[in-house]
């Protein structure tokens, strides 16, 4: 089968197509013919070695995490899926990739594809859906009437997070460029800051939570818009010691991550703010619940651009520009 792989970590990771044997599922796995793969910013960062201390791949490694496709074979202990079922899943942090004609998927991370979505739409959902679910529902515990700031509202995470936050009854503030104001307003954003003409920290106030989706000094500035007792969940770092301990990393990495997060933790404590870093985990049951929201129309996927499999490298390059409105998807079948 054809797969998009990288050969090594670094500035020249050797990304290209490779012919690999079609994988065989273990007893608790599904073999899925992949129809589409949703790309995420971390897919462009992994080959560079950015997360090499945390994520482990046997090289050459297949790129991509999110997929939608059809089950063609099941392992002996699989009970919830059968050949012919349409499914979607995230393979993130499982040491395997999705940008291939076939992929093995642990049953516990797969869910039925929402019936009202095609494969491209479904493939755009898993990582952004799970990330926002775990951040807003689990980590923050967002409640009706609370205010949450979600910067970069027109991006892949932002477009989904705004809709989920509104479903949870929250008021949403976000930042976008001038051309994306109508997009995020249509998704439900209540306070919209055009970052080209305004600084959000000078406009917004009284927020209960921040879902940090961008790099740079956004997190430090966001502390100032939070009420005492507010929460910041970061998807972009800095990584902290609590994250290292949760993953049972070695003492050196725990120390290094503690140093990396020392400044933001100190600033947060001074304001009575809770800061934490979130690494999404695959979860089929949560994907099923997210699928219910998609099927009822409470949330809709937002697609920026669809690339054919032969142009998967170009799709990664497009994503790396950081200008996508919603998700970038590779269509394989």
Q: What features would you highlight for this structure?
A:
alpha/beta, 333 residues, seven-stranded mixed β-sheet, 12 helices, Rossmann fold, 2 domains, Quinone Oxidoreductase, Chain A, domain 1, globular
Structure overview:
By secondary structure, the protein is α/β, with parallel strands linked by helices. The chain folds into 2 domains: 2-125 and 301-331, Medium-chain alcohol dehydrogenases, catalytic domain (Quinone Oxidoreductase, Chain A, domain 1), CATH 3.90.180.10; 128-277, NAD(P)-binding Rossmann-like Domain (Rossmann fold, 3-Layer(aba) Sandwich). Helix content is 30%, strand content 26%. The protein has 12 helices and 16 strands. The strands form 3 sheets. Strands 3, 5, 6, 7, 8, 15 and 16 form a 7-stranded mixed beta sheet that branches. β15 (303-308), α12 and β16 (327-331) form a beta-alpha-beta unit. α3 (126-139) crosses α4. The longest helix is centred in the middle third of the chain and has 14 residues, at 126-139. 47% of the residues are buried. The mean pLDDT is 95.
Q: Which CATH first-tier class of the largest domain would you pick? A: Alpha Beta
Strand count, sense and closure of the main sheet?
7 strands, mixed
**CATH homologous superfamily of the largest domain?**
Medium-chain alcohol dehydrogenases, catalytic domain
Contiguous low-pLDDT stretches (5 residues minimum) are none
Q: What's the end-to-end separation, in Å?
A: 13 Å
What sort of overall outline do the alpha carbons produce when their principal axes are compared?
globular
Kindly report the average pLDDT value: 95
């Amino acid at each position: 089968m054809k797969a998009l792989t990288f050969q090594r970590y670094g500035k020249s990771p050797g990304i290209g197509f490779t012919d690999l044997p079609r994988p065989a599922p273990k007893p608790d796995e599904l073999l899925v013919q992949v129809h589409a793969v949703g790309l995420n910013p971390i897919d462009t960062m992994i080959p560079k070695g950015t997360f090499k201390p945390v994520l482990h791949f046997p090289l050459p490694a297949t790129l991509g995490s999110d997929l939608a496709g059809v089950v063609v074979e099941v392992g002996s202990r699989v009970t919830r899926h059968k050949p012919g079922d349409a499914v979607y899943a995230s393979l993130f942090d499982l040491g395997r990739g999705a940008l291939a004609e076939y992929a093995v998927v642990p049953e516990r991370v797969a869910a039925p594809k929402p019936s009202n979505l095609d494969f491209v739409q479904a493939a755009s959902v898993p990582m952004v859906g799970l990330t926002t679910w775990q951040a807003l529902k689990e980590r923050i515990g967002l409640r009706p009437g609370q205010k949450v700031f979600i910067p970069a509202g027109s991006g892949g995470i932002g477009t989904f997070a705004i809709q989920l936050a509104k479903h949870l009854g929250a008021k949403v503030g976000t930042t976008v460029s001038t051309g994306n104001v109508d997009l995020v307003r249509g998704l439900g954003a209540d306070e919209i800051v055009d970052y080209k003409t305004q600084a959000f920290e000078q406009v917004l106030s009284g927020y209960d939570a921040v879902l940090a989706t961008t790099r740079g000094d956004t997190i430090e500035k966001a502390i100032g818009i939070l009420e005492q007792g507010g929460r910041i969940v970061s998807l972009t770092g800095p990584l902290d010691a609590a994250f290292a301990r949760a993953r049972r990393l070695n003492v050196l990495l725990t120390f290094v991550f503690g140093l990396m997060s020392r400044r933001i933790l100190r600033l947060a404590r001074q304001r009575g703010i809770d800061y934490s870093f979130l690494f999404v985990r695959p979860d089929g049951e949560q994907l099923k619940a997210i699928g219910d929201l998609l099927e009822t129309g409470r949330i809709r996927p937002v697609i920026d651009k669809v690339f054919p499999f032969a142009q998967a490298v170009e799709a990664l390059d497009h994503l790396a520009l950081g200008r996508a409105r919603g998700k970038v998807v590779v269509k394989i079948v």
